[in-house]
Amino acid sequence: MSAYPWGGPYTRNAKGCILANFKPGRGNYPEDGGFYTVRADAYWPNDYGLYNMAGNVSEWTSSAFYENSYSFIHDLNPDIRYDAKDEDSETMKRKSIRGGSWKDIAYFCMTGTRNWEYQDTGKAYIGFRCVLPFLGRSMSDF
How many CA atoms lie within 13 A of 94 on its CB side? Predict the structure, then answer.
């Protein structure tokens, strides 16, 4: 498994170009070409043709956040669903965010890294990804 969603262990390509919109240095936000968010196609897509799978904005997930969740979830279904109610504790209102953003260091862009935010808050560095099902034929049909 690659450390980053673009398929490698490095944050720069062979020419020295940064591969996503994140904070590459000590407070040097524009070094990667963006001071805040950038256009979705500002960086090369990954091998699946997907853009910004890391960097730019972190993505909300539907998974509840528990620090020790990797110790009790199954490898094949690592999702924990819980829709917190107003009367629940603050800890129960945390949702996982993934992918890192323009304000994060490279560590948060790694595929195995997650962070959290309260489910009822909005931040300039968190967004979501729209997903559509593929209605065509699969490659196994050929």
Answer: 15
Please list the ranges in the chain whose pLDDT falls under 50. Answer: none
- C-beta of residue 63 within 8 angstroms of C-beta of residue 84: no
- Would you state the pLDDT for residue 1? 60
Six token digits for residue 31 = 């070094």
DSSP letter for 44, please.
Answer: -
Task: Give the tens place of pLDDT for each residue, 82-100.
Answer: 888 889 888 889 999 999 9
Residue 116 DSSP label: E
Q: Which two tokens stand for residue 121?
A: 């808050």
Query: What's the pTM value of the predicted model, to 2 decimals?
Result: 0.78
Task: Print burial letters for 35-66: b (CB count within 10 Å at least 16), e (below 16).
Answer: eebbeeebbeebeeeeebbbbbbbbbbebbbb
Beta bridge partners of 118: 94
Give the separation between CA 70 and CA 3, rounded to whole angstroms.
Answer: 18
